[in-house]
Every structure is written in structure tokens, then in C-alpha cells.
Amino acid sequence: MTDIVICYNNFATSKSGGARESLLTLLNGLAEIHDITVDVYQTPPVDDPPDTNFEYQINTSNIQNVPKLKWANQIVNRFQWKRYLDENLMQDYDLLITQNQLAPASIAAASEHDIPSFFFVRSMALTGYEKYTPHLGHVTNLRQTDLGGKVQYPFLWKNFHDYRRAANNATRTIANSEFTSRKVEELFETDSSIIYPPIKLKKYHVEYNIGDYITMVNPRTKYKGPDIFLNIADRMPDEEFLLVGPIGPSKIKERAERISNVTHWEWCEDMREAYSQAKVVVVPSRWEEPFGRVPAEAMVSGIPCVVSNRGGLPEVVGDTGKIIDDVESVEAWVDGIHQILEYHDSEEQQTRAERFSAENQINRLTQLIEEVCALQ
User: Fold this and answer.
1) How far apart are the first and last CA of the chain?
2) Distance between CA atoms of residues 333 and 206, nearest Å
């Protein structure tokens, strides 16, 4: 029996996303191979305990927040979390796994208790690296950062270095893509292993029959590029477009409702319904996506993808998709869609998607754990 402790604030919380799904998929897969027990340490609420094929127990602790001060809030939260773990964490765990905001404090506690630790890096955005550059001096950083960074600069600085220390002190730092791994090496000066967000291939597979829609999934914020998608729809009036998921900005949502060739699904319980009607999937993201789950899901069925040259998106599609360098150029997107519809190889896309399969990622996690602790 291998005793694992999880420090993750959304393990049993309803308002969670891909990070929880990835972690649960990996743990369930691990439990099919080895006997494990899991103790979870998280912040409230516990309003969505997951169904798993392993036993787990949840421990919670309330922590106080600093309203509207993002970087100060992380520091204050971690101080409280570290104190809680110092008082409650047992020393006889075989492995600690952590991710997101609680990770730096959790890795510090694991080190003090001599517990091997895995730090899953899902997104570098939490570190503040876009607002703080480690090789520059304080004066230069203060000049180049935004107002929030200036006001909270000591906390911004400490926040970045807390994550950097955690990445260096963890027994294994695990990135979710080659892109994230390069960022870890560049900014934290340490190596990382790669475990992709695990994709359950059967969960997303449909027969690709060149459906009705040019589709975008997850248009919730402007940095995801829903306005770019609507610009494309304006330029291609003879095509039908589908937005899947809630749209955050009210102006963009109102605009989507006005465009005659755009359909909006606020929610889709089974993504196979959306993918079965897609002729091409477009990912016009403006920000550096750590991975790119949507194109990976679409490629399971050989659906062609056109993605922006941001973050891990090019890594996901490789040579099987169309990559747009000039993200704000509507002409570039329209040309890319025409090109990918004229020629794409569904079999190549499906083969590439297999590298992200849950089975492959679970095997990789098992190998890493076996390097660190004995599995019975």
C-alpha cells in the first residue's frame, strides 16, 4: 500500500476545471495498477467530492483572503497554509502531490517532513512571470510592471521566488507540456518532467464527417479570442459558426447573438455532441496556453484544427494543424481555415493525439513514482 497526500484546493470543489480532471484521471489510473490510499488537504468548500476507485479522506482548513490584492493574497494564503500543514501533516506519507496556489507552501512542508514531493506545474501565470522578470533589477521591474505589480511589488517578487524555490525543492517538478517545461527551465533554472493533461480518447471520439460548423470551444474571456472568432464569422458569411461554452464579456455575447451565422451553446454536457458537428476547430487564443486541451480532444476524431502560435498550442497540433502567427489578422485566420479544409490528414491527427492519451500519461506518472518510492 502506498500512502499519498494531496495538497490541492480544488480536489473536492465544484468550481474547478481541467487541473482537477487531470489529477483525478492520473490518480484513478494509478489506483488500477497499484494499491494506494489518499489523504487530501484542501481549503473549503467541499461541495463536490469526486467518485474515485481509491479510498480518500479530506481534511480542510479555512484561510483568510486579502480582497483585490492578487499577489499579496497568495503570500498571505500560503503563510496560513504552511502553518496548518506544520500542525497537521503526518510524516509517514510515501509521496506528496501538489499543484496551483498551495504548491509552494506544501513543497516546503514536505521538505521539512522528509516526504518525497511532486509539484505539478499547470500554468506559469500564477508565478507572476509576465509582470516580473527575474534577471532584471528591482528598479527595472518596477518600471515595466503594471499598476497592481507596482503597488504590490514586494509580494509580486516574493510570490515568484516562492514558486521558484518550490520547483527546485520538489523531488520532481512536472510540467504539462514542453512549452511549460521550457518556461520552468528558463525562469526557475531547474529541469522538469512532462506529463500531458491526460485525454480519455473514447470520451471524445466521434466519426468525422465534415460537420456543419466552424467551432470554437471555451470563449469565456477576451484573452481566449472570441472576438477574433466573431470577426472570422463576419468575413465568412457562407459558413456556419458555433461557440461552445459561456461567454464572459457581455459585449461579445451580445455581438454573438446578433450575427446570423453564429450559434452559441452556453453549455455542452458531452463534448462529442459538439465535435460531431464540427468541420474544423479554431483556437484563436491571445495568451500563452500552457497546453491546448481543446485541439487535442478534436484531433482524437481527426478534426482539423487552426490554432494561434501561443504557448503549447503549436506543440499539440504539430504539422497536422494550421498555426497562425499574426493572431489579430482576420485574413490569416480565414486563409488558414480554407487551407486546412482543402487538405488535412485525419489519420495523422489521430496518431498525434494518441501521445496525449490517459494511458500514456498514467504510465509516465507510475514510472516517476517508482523512481522515487517503492510501490507495492
Assistant:
1) 6
2) 25
